[in-house]
Amino acid sequence: MLWTHKLRTLLSVLGIVVGVATVTVMAAVGKGAEQKVLDGIRRMGTNLITVTAGKVAVMAGRERQTALVTTLLPADADAIQSSAGDLVSLVAPVQSRKMPVKFAEISLNTNIVGTSPEFLKIRHLRLQSGDLFDEQDNRASRRVAVVGQTLVHDLFGGADPVGQRIRVGRVPFEVIGALAPAGVDANGVDQDDQILVPLRTALRRVFNVIYLNNIYVQARSEDLMDECAARVGQILRERHHLREGIADDFTIQTQAVLLRAQRETQRTFSSLTISVASLSLVVGGVGILAVMLMSVRERVREIGLRRALGARRRDILFQFLLEAIILSVSGGLAGAAVGIAGVSVLAYLASWDAVVAPEAVSLAVASSAAIGLVFGTIPARKASLANPVSSLRAE
Amino acid sequence: MRTWRLLKQSTTALGRNKTRSFLVMLGVSIGIAALTVVVGMAQGANKIVMRQVQTFGPTTIMLFAGGGRNEPGADPTVVTLTLDDAQAVETQIPGIRMVCVQAMRPRVLVSYRDQASEVTVGGASGNFQESWEWYVEEGEFFTEQDLNGMARVAVAGQTVASTLFQGVSPIGETIRINNANFTVTGLLSSKGSSAGGGDMDDRIIIPITTAMRRTFNTVGLTNVRITAMKADDVQRVANEVRALIRERHMIQPPELDDFRVVTPDVIAGLSQLVAGTLNKVLLAVTILSLVVGGIVLMNLMLLSVTDRRHEIGLRRALGGRQRDVLLQFLFESLLLTISGGLIGLVAGAGAALVVRSWSVQPIVLSWEPVAVALALSVLVGLVFGLLPARRAAGLHPVEALR
């Protein structure tokens, strides 16, 4: 029966296909954009928790420790990694201090940061050239350094510094890498004005101390920030033997501005995706509804004829129900396929980060099938109930 | 007269088949309304997210005093960067939105009653809040009058408030900075830590005039925060700032700079990424809604005209000419799509306004996509209403009647 009216069948299926495919693509585009933007913000360090010995203030684009506290130790960082592993993905211990650095005839002051290789990942810094030091360099306290862009400019005049020898204080170091420029962060702090060296090298050969002034902790996700900060605080209080009533000898902080921005962005995007997808569902639904209503109305005469020739009501109802099921289900599935294919084409050709949202696809298929069924069957039922003579007379 | 008759004929034909006309109009108006709302929502989201990224400062350039041999920033012996330099930057370099100057000192002794703390104190110009995207949460920022009168007023950060005042509201209280009395007029919102772990909230902001003349007694600025008009103009402005300050400080190239200009590279990258992504989303959403609306309308027109082949044959058999039939269908399609489109436009704008006032979802209404949608719906209505009508009218009447 469906084949005798090719155009009508085609149009009904097309309506459903387009409805479902749009919801799929819209939801995917929204979700992809959300992930891309949130990833961008995340790279600024939304899941970063900073533990500071005592407290550290920001002055003119640099962090400065305001009081000397010697209780934060490398072992504390190891303890956080091992006993909060379910909340924490990366930990980087840091001892940093301002020191004079000398290359050729130029000498200037910069931040010497003794840390582990994880520091780069946690702070989302990238290398521009050369390599980062590894665990081996750390264990052997090798004198190797990775320099920031400010120093590449001021110390080396913009030339590639890899392989050059510098002096940090009086200790000679070999430059093995240079950081890519990061510029000032949201708080106006210059992130390029630093030299990274292995932690053990810094502690034993440069600063001659055994304590840290920072531990950077990366939480597994932004939702775990509070829990993670609480756990880290608890671990440190225990390890530092702080009895109840005694104030912390450390400060735990998050980047409030980034977290706020991230929350707001997430909220905006999810409500956008939901409303866009549901609106296109409505438009597609109306399309399906209209096509179904019209195509059944067109067949009122046919229904009358069948009834006049002795078909029972249930036969007609069953026939239309079956037709509607075939149309809606095949249309819905084809729509999902077209939508998913469209998403992959978008992702491939325009390198869009569209992400298929299974909830949206199944919701679209289900609701378009439901609409097709209801509006394909109801008018048919009405026609089958009417007197065959009047149906036959219908235009 | 002829046109009038045609119009009357079209309206009667449309009126006779109410369901069909209603369905076509519904299709057009829902399509247009949905497009208005969807595009508005996408633009609204665009605005909100870009606003968030703006707070990171993709257009800000930091100019620090010191550099080269000198320790950059906060060294009281560096007095090379002056108010005149900042003013020269603002007046001589085009494309700058604002310039905020600061003179800061670390570890200044600040006390309140029997509580004392070492806090970073910064003198700042009156545009501090806008420049740093850092606003007072309670109370007020200092005024132009305070700046002119070198008033002893201070705005406190959250950490200062919690360590010094321990829960008491600091507004209106008197604190001592370097042994001079200051009245706290405002409390800054929380910024949390910087990427390097420095506590941004552990600071006090006072008027720049008070700081330079009364508290620190200096002519040197610590830093200048320069906000460029456009994000893609930041590098040019930074280069011109470097050249200008070098010239003013009479520094010849091999000589090291006594200042440092730093641009927000990572943040600018993020801002570009976000803007690019959002524009793509907007484009995709608009095009998709247009395509869906167009296809739905095409379906409806095709169906409704094939429905009427019988009628066309009858008209032709009764002596109607081919052009008469076509003209009638042309009129009918125009009537349906235009009125449907207008209804959709009104409904969409109304829905957008309702959503805007009832929910947090922001909506920005713009006319371009809606105009395109209207034009497209008329075009689709015409093409897919006329083509099958023409085919039917071209048939032999007897054929069409069958």
Characterization of the model:
The complex is a heterodimer of chains A (395) and B (402). Chain A is of the alpha+beta class. Chain A has two domains: 3-40 and 262-393, no CATH class; 47-254, no CATH class. Chain A has helices at 6-42, 74-83, 118-122, 135-139, 149-156, 199-207, 225-239, 256-297, 300-308, 313-349, 358-385, 388-393; strands at residues 48-53, 56-59, 62-65, 88-103, 106-115, 127-130, 144-147, 165-168, 171-179, 194-198, 214-219, 250-254. The longest helix of chain A is centred in the C-terminal third of the chain and has 42 residues, at 256-297. Chain B has 402 residues and is an alpha+beta fold. Chain B has two domains: 2-52 and 271-401, no CATH class; 60-263, no CATH class. In chain B, strand 6 (174-177) and strand 7 form a beta hairpin. Chain B has helices at residues 2-16, 18-54, 83-92, 128-132, 144-148, 158-165, 208-215, 234-248, 265-306, 309-317, 322-358, 367-394, 397-401, and strands at 60-65, 96-112, 115-124, 136-139, 153-156, 174-177, 180-188, 203-207, 223-228, 259-262. Classes of the chains: A alpha+beta (395), B alpha+beta (402). At the A-B interface, helix 1, strand 1, strand 2, strand 3 and strand 5 of A face helix 2, strand 1, strand 2, strand 3 and helix 9 of B.
